[in-house]
Design a protein that fits this description.
five-stranded mixed β-sheet; 10 strands; globular
Length: about 325
């Protein structure tokens, strides 16, 4: 049905019926949280490798580095009727501070591991939906909240819960704004500074990369705080997910993901969303009621002065 929807408008009602049914059949009350580790059956581990949608798992050794060390965790939701089929899973790194780049977390030569009792921060660095047919059924928020509870039971010293998230449409949005001479998202000066984004390997050359740091962060602040879809929601799908779950946009990370896919989809930009357990409900209500993007002052400071007072939302 999903494949046919592109050419068959009459199937929209069928699709809606499936979403309604699956929302009932995959109700949170039926789902079971299971930790994925090296003792998990190989059949399930193979599916974790296959379904990883954010940072590709390259080998069995790569998988083991993500789930076996004491400072790494992986949790998945399962349904009793699909005992060997993960529905959604999250990969977690236990650290001493909020990370600004994903490479150290995924490094094959990682030497900075911490014992769980020394960790203060849980980093959700990859969340993957496994079942394409359940795309309209949201249980990601339940997964994060339950994983937080599970990890806190193991380690009461954890104080900070953050993501290290991709920004999948930022490069496309920024390219469009760079071509628009009347853009209110970026200034003429910043547009000129960002011209080198078209140069191959720009991120590997400090003399080219560094002059673009602040212009790109200013553009990113506009993208998250001002750019909107016609429905008035943030243009970024990952932002809508985390903000809707009560997170706060905590930090913008220049070149947080400098691999090929990260450069292609976001010019390397990554962000941290903070799940402050004392303010999750408050943040959720602000976003659900007024589409308010709750953001840290460090993010807001990146907005251009002229843009900071411009409240006109921009269509994505």
């Amino acid at each position: 049905v999903i494949d046919a929807l592109t050419n068959r408008d009459d199937l929209k009602s069928v699709d809606d019926d499936f979403v309604h049914l699956f929302s009932s059949w995959f109700n949170r009350g039926f789902l079971v949280l299971r930790r994925i580790d090296w003792s998990t059956p190989a059949l399930i581990l193979e599916k974790i490798i296959r379904y990883e949608a954010v940072h590709r798992i390259r080998s069995w050794d790569d998988l083991r580095r993500r789930i076996d060390p004491p400072d790494r965790r992986c949790y998945a939701f399962f349904h009793p009727a699909l005992v060997d089929e993960p529905l959604i899973f999250v990969e977690v790194a236990l650290t001493r501070e909020i990370p600004d780049a994903v490479a150290p977390i995924l490094s094959m030569q990682r030497t900075d591991g911490v014992t769980p009792d020394k960790a203060t921060t849980a980093v959700f660095y990859s969340i993957s939906n496994c079942q394409r047919g359940l795309a309209g059924v949201s249980f990601g928020s339940f997964l994060i909240k339950q994983v937080v509870q599970e990890i806190c039971r193991e380690n009461s010293k954890l104080q900070t819960f953050v993501t290290l998230s991709p920004v999948p449409n930022f490069a496309r949005w920024l390219d469009r704004e760079r071509k628009n001479e009347n853009s209110i998202a970026i200034s003429p000066e910043d547009r000129t500074a960002l011209e080198n984004l078209s140069r191959d390997g720009w991120w590997q050359l400090p003399e080219i990369r560094e002059p673009m740091r602040e212009p790109m962060l200013r553009a990113a602040a506009w993208y998250f705080l001002r750019a909107r879809t016609p429905r008035g929601t943030p243009v970024d799908s990952v932002a809508r997910f985390h903000l809707g779950n009560g997170a706060r946009l905590e930090r913008l990370n220049f070149l947080g993901d400098a691999n090929e896919n990260g450069i292609k989809q976001s010019y390397g930009l990554m962000v941290n969303y903070l799940y402050d357990l004392d303010h999750i409900e408050e943040n959720h209500e602000a976003f659900a009621g007024a589409r308010t993007v709750v953001a840290a002052s460090a993010v807001k400071r990146h907005l251009r002065k002229s843009a900071a007072t411009d409240l006109v939302p921009m269509s994505g």
